[in-house]
Every structure is written in C-alpha cells, then in structure tokens.
Amino acid sequence: MTTGREALKRKLEAADATVAVIGQGYVGLPLSMELCRAGFRVIGIDLNEDRVRQLNAGETYIFDVSSEEIAAARAKGQFEATSDYARIAEADAISICVPTPLRKTKDPDVSYIQAAAQSMSPYLRGPVLVVLESTTYPGTTEEIVAPMLESSGLKLDDNLFVAFSPERVDPGNARYGLRNTPKVVGGVTPASTELIAALYGSVVDNVHVVGSAREAELVKLLENTFRAVNIALVNEMAMMCDRMDIDIWNVIEAAATKPFGFMPFFPGPGIGGHCIPLDPTYLSWKAKSFGFYNRFIELATDINGNMPRFVVQKLVRELNARGVATGGARILLCGVAYKNDINDLRESPALDIWQILAEDWGATVEYHDPFIDRVDLFDATSVDLSLEALQSYDAVVITTAHKKIDYDLVAEHAKLVFDTRHAIKDVSADIIRL
Predict the structure, then answer these.
(1) Which of 74, 105, 120, 266 has its CB surrounded by the most CB atoms within 10 Å?
(2) Rounded Cα distance, 142 and 144, in Å
C-alpha cells in the first residue's frame, strides 16, 4: 500500500506537483520562475496587490527576473499570482520566502514567518511539504513553524512535513543563479529531509543534505558571518592604512597574488543588502540564550556599522583641507544601490552617508544612479551625470561602482572625488580613497 508520503515524493521527483511560494520578492520570485522552468505549477502568494497585478500582467519588478520569463510562465499556465491564502489548499508543497528583519532592539523579527504560517494553516491539505527559506536563527523551523502548522490538524511525519533550505540569492550575479548554486536542505524529521531533497532535486543541479533543519539554518548564518567578519577585518585595515598613508587597495592586490592561504576581501563605505548586515546578529542573539557571546560578530558589526561615519569624517577632512566648509557644500553620491549593477537599496550604506552629511553636517546631497530613479527616503530623484553637473559639486563620493557610470568623466571634471569602491584606477591629487 502506497503511503501519502511516498505518493508525494513521486510527485515531487517528477515535477508533477503544485508549489505555492509565499512572498514574491527578491527570493520568492526567482524561486517561482525556477520551479516553473523545472515543470512545476506555481502559485505565487503576496499580500501586495500591486505586485500581484504586475505579475499576472507578465511584468517584473525584480532585477534578476525578466518580464519575458514571467509572461512565458503565465502563457503556459504554470504561474499565477494571488493574495488569497485559500489557494494554499491546491498546493503539494509550500515555500515561505518572507522578510526577517531586525527590530530596533536588534532582536530577530519573525513576525512575517509567524503570519505566513498562521495564514496558511486553515487551508493546508495533506500530504504536504512546507519549506522555510527565510533566513533566521537555528530552531525557528522546528520550534515555531512546525507547531503552528500542526494546529491545522495535520500531523508531523503523517501528512505534514516541514523543512528548511537557506536562500542563496545573490542579486546581479550573472554566473551563479538558483539552479547552479548548491541547495542546502534539512528537515525537522528524516522523512521531511527526504521530501525536501526530492523537491529541490527536481529544480537545482546539486542538493546538499544536512542532518536537521537547525543545521541548515546555521549554514546560512555561518556563510554570511564569515563574510561580515572578513569585511570588517579589511575595513579596519583600511582605516589603519588611512592613518599610515598606505594604499590598502595596492596591499590587497599584492596579497591576492598568493595562490594559497589568502582570500581577498575589499573595503567599502559599509555593508548592505538583505543578508550580511542582519544575519550575523540572528546568530549572536540566539547564542546568548545558551550563555555564549560571539565576540567576533559583535566587533564586526561595530566596525562595519561605523564605516559610513568614517567615510563622512574623511570627506569632511579633505574638504576642509581645500577650504570648503561641509555645511552648505554640494555633494553628489555616485551610485546608491548597496552593491554594483543592481537596483537594490536595502540597507545601503550610501543612505547612511547621505543622512549623516545632510542632517549632521548641513550639506546639500544629490545622487546619480542609472539603476535607481528615485529614493523615497529623501524624496529625491537621480540627477544627470554631465560635465556641467559634475563641476557644480564640491565633491563626488563614489558609493557604488556601476559599470554604466562613466568614471572617466567623473575623474576628469569633478573638483574632488572620494572613491570608496576603487572604481577609478588612476589616482591623482583630486581623487582620494578609503
């Protein structure tokens, strides 16, 4: 006699199942499209009605997903967006891809996860696999999500299976996408692990199975803590080199010639995005409940969080050396996305630099970014980058190194350039760096 779990496993392995993806943002929408390419029918659930309308019209709002992809999936009848959680009843598998921000107290905010679990519970029909993809602290899937889902009347390992798989989305990365990036999976139970491996085995090239959902949750935090700590190290080195009048970029370039035992990381005006500024704090917060204090994480957070202010202080010093008062100075931020060649503003250090310059120092700040037309936080729109415009600013601060920006024009005509991203290779007296 075939069990419900066995029948569900066969459907997942054959990509003959319906998958609901809750949250159609930077993680959920690319996942939805990859599931469609694998042959699954996908229901994209999002409470933002404007997003739902855009998706059903075949239009994108995510840099890494084209309108053509969405329109093709719609035309084949594979994809539909909705805000109606009742559609969960049609799903054989469900992926939760909702935000997990930090509260002002630096505690993890899992309210979006809880809301998604609570909203879907009345409509769950077993057998069903529920996968949490939202980055969170170890234990969330087992301690919060699974019990909330069992309140639906389904029973774990009978007709309900719960697992975690960390998202590894890297916006703007043309080389590695969801399919060719190994997918780490771990279930609350062995049966749940078996089913999540079957689901993603139909979607990605390489599935890496770990021993539990807790291990899978920690994988994501380790990845981004590793990056945060090493970025903090090189940022501290950059501040030290500023005191010693040594070019940190030349030092890194030389150190990177070593073919073993060294991995280059690069300084910048701060850290941004949906992962590195937040994820290590989840781990540090959870560790405290076990009486363990992550000193590396706390130190790295402090160093990286202070980089925008270091940038402003160095800029103020350079302006003063040229007889220009920062109060009333006109400053252009060149690129405000948190990383190169994308349209993502989340946690961008450029916004912190902007706020410090405008509010603490009284400067007039404008920006140019070919990927971001408007910054609502400051009620500002991107200005044109022309010879005349460049000459009108007291300083240009390169906070993002987009390929679409003409840095030769910036270097030639700006009065003072503060290049925080090593976008300009030839250094002159009018160009300073971290």
Answers:
(1) 120
(2) 6
Q: Which two tokens stand for residue 423?
A: 């976008």
Convert the pLDDT of each residue in 297-321 to its tens digit: 999 999 999 999 999 999 999 999 9
Query: pLDDT band for position 425 (50/70/90)?
Result: confident
Average the pLDDT over 13-39 and give the result.
Answer: 97
CA separation for the pair 230, 250 (Å, rounded) = 18
Buried b (16+ CB within 10 A) or exposed e, 80-108: bbbeebebbeebbbbbbbbbbeeeeeeeb
What residues have CB less than 8 Å from 296, skipping those under 6 apart? Answer: 225, 229
For residue 364, how many other CB atoms are within 10 A of its CB? 14
Dist CA 178 CA 182 (whole Å): 8
Place of tokens 């997990």: 100
What lies within 8 Å, CB to CB, of 108 at 6+ separation is 100, 102, 136, 137, 281, 282, 285, 286
Helix (H), strand (E) at residue 130:
strand 128-132
Give the residue among 389, 403, 294, 277 at the shortest CA–CA distance from 333.
389
* pLDDT level of residue 172 (50, 70, 90 thresholds): confident
Of 168, 155, 100, 105, which Cα lies nearest the Cα of 128?
155
Residue with tokens 């933002």: 48
At position 246, the amino acid (one-letter code) is: I
As annotated, the active-site residues are: 275
245: left (phi over 0), alpha (psi -120 to 50) or beta: left
Whether pTM exceeds 0.85: yes
Question: d(Cα 348, Cα 51) in Å, to the nearest integer?
Answer: 23
Per-residue b or e along 241-267, where b marks 16 or more CB atoms closer than 10 Å to that residue's CB: bbeeeeebbeebeeeeeeeeeeeebbb
Which pLDDT does position 118 carry in this prediction? Answer: 97
Name the residue among 41, 139, 22, 140 with its Cα closest to residue 88: 22
Q: How many residues does the structure list for the chain? A: 434
